[in-house]
Amino acid sequence: MLDPEQVGRWLREDLGHHDVTNHVPGETTGRLVAKEPGVVAGLDAAEAVFDYLEVDVTERLDDGTGVHSGDVVLRTEGPATATLRAERVAVNISGHASGIATRTRRAVDAAHEVNEDVRIAGTRKTTPGLRGVEKRAVVAGGGDTHRLDLSHMVMVKDNHVAEMGLEGAITHFREQASFATKVEVEVEEPEDAPRAAEAGADIVLLDNMDPATTEEAVELLPDDVLSEASGGIRVSDVPAYAATGVDVISMGSLTHSAPSLDLSFRTG
User: Fold this and answer.
1) Which of 35, 125, 157, 182 is catalytic?
2) pLDDT of the chain along its 268 residues, tens only?
3) What CATH number corresponds to the domain at position 90?
4) Shared-domain flag, residues 171 and 224
5) Which helix (H) or strand (E) holds 56?
6) What CATH number is attached to the domain comprising 137?
7) 241, 218 in Cβ contact below 8 A?
8) Are residues 29 and 147 in the same domain?
9) Is 125 known to be catalytic?
10) What is the rounded CA–CA span in Å between residue 200 and residue 219?
11) Is the pTM of this model over 0.90?
């Protein structure tokens, strides 16, 4: 459920203190239309924007639905002034989320052409204040959220290893974490992958390795430890990584670099 206070902040940012542009009498209908093919997401957020201004959303597609150019994504009915005031924020947020869902779907499809079992995951490289919208968009595209915040999983990174050593860092965080919290360990060399597993890692992150090196590291890991590839992976790189046998491919570009899907709002 989207926080109404957050929706209010979005609208206040756009409307300012004295909106003259959108003073239009009467009632109107509206429709959000796709101008290019893709996967829609963020429609719950768009609906929350209209609802905040007491404009009814009478129909909308489910997040994760594929659309073509010209498809109606959402319909509204209500006061013309409120409809026009909600329009830009609703279009911006749903276009942004739909761009993420579209890129995620492309990555998932590319991976599954090679390996049906590999997962595509997002990262914490999200826009401050929009993580919930962006993570839900990744899911709408068929991806995995990865950890939603720092409390969801322990990530032992290179800085921790530099301070405490690989085994020392894993032991330290194992002692700090709940029994229910998984521990993931980042390694940069294939030979460190089995070391991390032996020291107690549940997941080993193979960071900035090319596909051949990733495959080498995967082969060194026991079957009960998950492997994750990460580090500047593009959609075009996904098939090569999927072929390595890795369990998860995580991609910051799903959220920080996805272009918005082109959507347009029309009234009347």
Assistant:
1) 125
2) 678 889 888 888 877 777 666 677 899 999 999 999 999 999 999 999 999 999 999 999 999 999 999 999 999 999 999 999 999 999 999 999 999 999 999 999 999 999 999 999 999 999 999 999 999 999 999 999 998 888 889 999 888 888 899 999 899 988 888 888 899 999 999 999 999 999 999 999 999 999 999 999 999 999 999 999 999 999 999 999 999 999 999 999 999 999 999 999 999 8
3) 3.90.1170.20
4) yes
5) strand 56-60
6) 3.20.20.70
7) no
8) no
9) yes
10) 18
11) yes
Task: Tell me the C-alpha distance between 36 and 262, whole Å.
Answer: 6
Tokens of 49: 């924007």
Residues 129 and 102 in one domain: no
For residues 211 and 235, state if they share a domain. yes
Domain that holds residue 236: 113-256
Domain count, the chain: 2
Distance of CA 133 to the CA centre of its chain: 8
Token pair recorded at residue 63? 């997040």
How many angstroms separate the CA atoms of 20 and 241, rounded? 53
